[in-house]
Each structure stands twice: as C-alpha cells, then as structure tokens.
Amino acid sequence: MAPPDALLVVIRHAPHGSNWLREGLDAALVAAAFGQPVQLLFMGQGIMALLKEQSSGAPGQKATLPTIDMLEMYDIDKLWVAEGGLQSMNLSADSLVEGATLIADKEVPGLLHQHTKILNF
Amino acid sequence: MILHILTKAPDSSAATQMQQAIGEHDTVLLIEEAATAALDTSWAAWQQCQSRIFLLSEDLTSRGLAGIAANNELPTLEMQGFVALTEQYEKTVTWY
Amino acid sequence: MQYGLLVMGAPYSSPAPHSALRFAHALLSRGHQITGVFFYHDGVHNASSLMAPPQDELNLREAWAELNQQHAVQLDVCIAAALRRGLMSESEAQRHGKQSYNVAPPFELTGLGQLLELQQRADRLITFA
C-alpha cells in the first residue's frame, strides 16, 4: 500500500527520444526533496529508462542512469514496472537495474487508486 | 475513482497504456486527437468502459466527426460537461 | 472548487494550450476558481512574449495574459524547463549574458516545487499535454 498523500509519477517515455523522461524524473526528485512520499511506475517505452546496460553514448547525450541511481538517495525505492510492457518489448527482468519490481498489468489500476496524487509523463 | 483524459488517437501507445490503467469505476474523456475514436466503434475501450466514456463534442465538430459520432450513437459531452466530470472525480490522469 | 492546471504542450505545435484555455474559461463560468497555471516541458513556450502568430490565429500568450488580468490567475513557468529552451526573464537574461529576454509578467519563472505545491493546494489538478 502507498502511504497517505503519496505521489505516483508515471514514466512512459524512453531516454533520448524526448525530454519527457528527464523532466518526469525531475518532478519525482523535487517532490521527494520536499518530503513527499514518491513511487514510480514505468510503462511501455518508459521501461527503457531502467535498462542497466545504458552507458554514455555520443558526446552531449546526457545519460539517464545516474538519475535512476540517485532515486534511492531520495527515498524513492518503489520502481514499479508493468509486466506486460516488459514482455511486449521482449525484455527480461534481469536486464533492469536492481530495485525494479514487476507488477502484473491487472494490478496497475489498483496502484493508481492507492495514490492520492498522480503525475503522468 | 479516476477520470482518464486521452488526447491521442486510439491506436497510440498512450491509448494502450490508458486502457491498462482504467479501473472498474473509472471514467474516460476523449479529447483532441482522441476524437478520432468516433470512427472506430470496434475500439476495445468502448466496450471496456461502456457508459463511462465520452467524446468532447467541440473537438468532434472541429474535425468534422460530429455527424459520424451521432450516427454511431457515441456519447458526447460539452466543455461544461468536461468540467462537471472533474467536479465528480477527485483524480484525473491525462494520457498523451 | 480550486483548480490547478498543468500545461505541457507548446502553442501551435500541440492543441494542449488551447484546450487548457477553453477548460479554464468553462470552469470559471461554473463558479470555480483557478489557483494557478503551471507551464512545464514544452508548455513553457506559452510564455514567450516574442510569439507573433498571423492575425487570424489566436495569440496564446496574450490569451493567458488576459486570463490573468480578468481573473488574477497566477501563471508560473518552470525555470529549468524554460532556460534550456531559451525562454528567460530580463534578470535571467542578464545573469546568463543574453542580449534579449522573452518572459515578462504576468508570467513568472519559478521552481518545480511550485507545481507540487499547486497539486497540494488545489482541489483538482488537470493536465493538458
């Protein structure tokens, strides 16, 4: 169960495709810095943010993984991954960073309902 | 209970993700590009959310889809109805 | 009821700002109030005073400014999202050594914390993106 007044930040966009991921994670970090309990839900392409083999690409491409690694320092330790999304991308759970937790697709509506606040990126 | 607002077409990944997130008592409002859902009565969300899914009429009208939505007997709401839905639902989530 | 609006689409690229404005006027006409509008992601472009659409198109920056004048609606723009997209106030332009600026009152550059505060304070937060 999510604590009362918890914020759920939904991440649906991949690294490097747009700035949605970066700005979504920024919102999560700022909320956590303000003392709000925050959980993250990764859906669809957003799951790619958790791929542990991400490394520095071309010069000037800012990496996402350092931000993902920072989440724990901000007490954001619930990183939910929608299972169906993982499967439809042909990814396995062991390709993801430590701390990612699979959630069955049918549990997703319940996760949204548990949270009093939701931001969708 | 959540009001889901979809702004992208029914074949978008935003639509697929929204469909995964819709709970039993949630309601859906289709605005902007999602107005094209009027063209596809076989779209799964019409069944999934029967009587809890609406098209925003002014976005239908501007796209030339109002007549088609009426012929397909799809439920529509005016902008005032949109506001009324947000009065009822404490949480809204926009899928884009 | 108190409403907060989160706008994340750019004018003339996305229908989101126009939907948000129509929604804003509709909710005011039903007797509600707007606690504030927060512009984030590409939505920060709504604040540009340098936008110059053709005369037969709505000037969205002016439409937001009008909403502020008529209903004292606070218009907050995320500073980090704005700066990286080349939107800045006079003081930020000076700080960054830029020749010109394009964000002026009633739009205010502010931190992301303002969005979270808006979400806490308002009875409803509606996202347009």
Q: How would a crystallographer describe the biggest sheet of chain C?
A: 5 strands, parallel
Tell me the count of domains of chain A.
Answer: 1
Q: SSE order of chain C, as H and E? A: EHEHEHHEHE
Rounded to the nearest angstrom, the radius of gyration of chain C is 14 Å
Order of helices and strands of chain A: EHEHEHEHE
Average residue-wise pLDDT of chain A = 95
Cα distance spanning the termini of chain A: 22 Å
Shape designation of chain C: globular
- Biggest chain-to-chain interface with counts: B-C, 18 and 21 residues
Strand order of the largest sheet of chain A: 4-3-2-1-5
Quaternary arrangement of the chains shown? Answer: heterotrimer
Distance between the termini of chain C: 22 Å
CATH superfamily of chain A: DsrEFH-like
Give a quick rundown of the structure.
The complex is a heterotrimer of chains A (121), B (96) and C (129). Chain A is built from 4 helices and 5 strands.
Write the layout of secondary structure elements.
The complex is a heterotrimer of chains A (121), B (96) and C (129).
Chain A: E1 7-11, H1 20-33, E2 38-42, H2 65-70, E3 79-82, H3 83-88, E4 100-103, H4 108-114, E5 117-120
Parallel strand pairs in A: 1-2, 1-5, 2-3, 3-4
Chain B: E1 2-6, H1 13-21, E2 27-30, H2 44-48, E3 53-56, H3 57-62, H4 66-71, E4 76-77, H5 79-88, E5 91-95
Chain C: E1 2-7, H1 16-29, E2 33-39, H2 60-71, E3 75-78, H3 79-84, H4 90-95, E4 107-110, H5 113-121, E5 124-128
Parallel strand pairs in C: 1-2, 1-5, 2-3, 3-4
Helix pairs in contact in C: 1-2
Fold and architecture overview:
- Chain A has 4 helices and 5 strands, in the order E-H-E-H-E-H-E-H-E.
- Chain A has 121 residues and is an alpha/beta fold.
- Chain A has a single domain, classed as 3-Layer(aba) Sandwich (Hypothetical Protein Ychn, Chain: A), CATH 3.40.1260.
- Chain A starts with 6 loop residues before the first strand and ends with a strand.
- The mean pLDDT of chain A is 95.
- By secondary structure, chain B is of the alpha/beta class.
- Chain B has a single domain (2-95), classed as DsrEFH-like (Hypothetical Protein Ychn, Chain: A), CATH 3.40.1260.
- Chain B is built from 5 helices and 5 strands, in the order E-H-E-H-E-H-H-E-H-E.
- Chain B has helices at 13-21, 44-48, 57-62, 66-71, 79-88; strands spanning 2-6, 27-30, 53-56, 76-77, 91-95.
- The longest helix of chain B is centred in the C-terminal third of the chain and has 10 residues, at 79-88.
- The radius of gyration of chain B is 12 Å and the shape is globular.
- In chain C, 36% of the residues lie in helices and 20% in strands.
- Chain C has a 5-stranded parallel β-sheet with strand order 4-3-2-1-5, sandwiched between helices.
- Chain B binds chain C through residues 5, 7, 31-33, 58, 79-80, 82-84, 86-87, 90, 92-94, 96, and chain C through 1, 3, 8-9, 15-16, 19, 22-23, 26-27, 29-30, 32, 123-129.
- Chain B: It holds the Pfam family DsrH.
- Chain B: InterPro entries: DsrEFH-like, Sulphur_relay_TusB/DsrH.
- Chain B: This is Sulfurtransferase complex subunit TusB.
- Chain A: Pfam families: DsrE.
